[in-house]
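User: Continuing from earlier, I have the next pair ready.

Assistant: Great, send them over.

User: Here they are, in order.

Assistant: Folding the first of the pair now:
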Amino acid sequence: MAFLNDTRGFDITLADSIRSAFKAQAERRALRRAYRRTRDELAGLSGRELADLGISRSEITRVAHEATYGA
């Protein structure tokens, strides 16, 4: 019976890990900005405009979150 060992390691360096962490943080920051912008724009609408969209004022946070981060 034959055995095969694969000892290749990952070529991830400390610099790659740091770069990845900064990239993930930048992506989270961009999503948070989009969420706040969406929430603020919806909050700035009148009750009539919100009703036309089918959104009540109490749903603004949920709608903004779903629009930004998905359902």
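And the other member of the pair:
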Amino acid sequence: MRHPLRSLFTALLAGALLALGPVPVRAATAATAPAYLTREAVFTAPGNGWAQVERYLDGTPGFTQEQYPDDGRGDQDGARVTWFGGVGRPFSGRFLLYSAAGWDTAAGTPVLLVHGANDNADRAWANPGESGSCGASSCPGTGMAQALAAAGHRVFAVGFAHQQGDDLMQAQAVGDALALIRARTGAPQVDLVAWSKGEVAARAYVSSVKPSWGRAYAGDVRRLVTLGGPNGGLDYVYAHGWAFSLATWPACGGTANAPSPHLYMTCYGTYTAQPCLGVLPSGGRDCFPGQRQLLARWDGTYGVDSGMQDWWTTYYGGQGYYTSGQGIQAAIDAGSLIAPLKRAGVPASVRAYLLAGGSADVPGILNENRGPSDGLVFTASALDTAGYGTVGGTALLSGLNHMELAWDPAAIGQVRTWLG
């Protein structure tokens, strides 16, 4: 989440079939590394408190080369380019596995950290100030990873190839990372801590919501902790569409790596199309597949931001004065995962904990102000327990915004309490 505007929304793989029913969960045991995983590289001095970073390729047929915006706004950056083999737009069957200092000496259940949209494991978990945007005026140089490691946890993190990618493929990467951690540590189960969009990928894995070619849940998760996760979905991009499109639409000067609810928009007197920036696929382009998967309607609860230009047609679809689009319901119908995840359910064997923020003060964006929120996700969505078999606890940290939930000491303290 280098820029807070960029940390939302996604989409289904074309033709992917969801496994929506609960599946029998077998007891997890210590595992060997799966044969379909190839370790392509290892970096032993990555910095940011990590002991090593490894790049893996999952050779399972079904992974694809997802599309990226043409102007490079969604490309990997910094050290991640090196770790992905000098590739800014990696194949989605590749992922990074980060190991924090002490992973091989600490005791107890290992922890896997799952980052959110337009983010990476370095900024999200180890150096919140890496990009200068952490949700506060002053950003720390260490984060959740170092704090949990210092408390004696064996800490790992997954890094996804596509910053706004399909959550069904990313869920398979979560399962891959868990299998590797179990093989390395001998632990039968791992705790998952998932932030923002990462909650959807983590939850899809444990719920066996997957593409037709994907693997089902392996019974290898003890606890699932969600931080500002859109458990009940979100409609931010449609409810505040004009402001959102101005920040993203290149013809209007927008550069944010986030999807637009519009297919066409008038910028400086010219009616333009940007097919790769839409929430819905258009013109053969689909660069934000993971964002459709987060969508749910909240207009019946909190209304729509009627102060925005073309607010009605943005949310409900149609031709406005300056924009046109298909509306949120068309996007939900094209692949939201919120309802399927609730129907599938998280197995009762996985004890879930949900953390929400209550401060809508993320710097530099139009914060979600239609109801109580952390600036991006409604509090009611983050604390929505529907579909969870066993809820170990929920908590609201009213002084924290969406981005602070991943690194603020109060959030870290709550996570440590839940992990035990």
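Worth noting for the second one:
The chain has a mean pLDDT of 92. The longest strand covers residues 346-357.
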